[in-house]
Amino acid sequence: MGVAYAVWSGVGVTLVAAIGWLFLGQKLDAAAVGGMGLIVAGVVVLNLFSKSAAH
Fold this sequence. Notes:
mainly alpha, 55 residues, single chain, 0% strand
């Protein structure tokens, strides 16, 4: 349950920021883009390598 919550939270944060950038003109600096990249990387690591994630 915790892994699924982490994945959906990370995806949600990234999507909301991307929607703000694409449709609402929000400016994203390098730190914001890097942070979102780390979130996506964390989700990928959880799904590919964690034995806690259900497949």
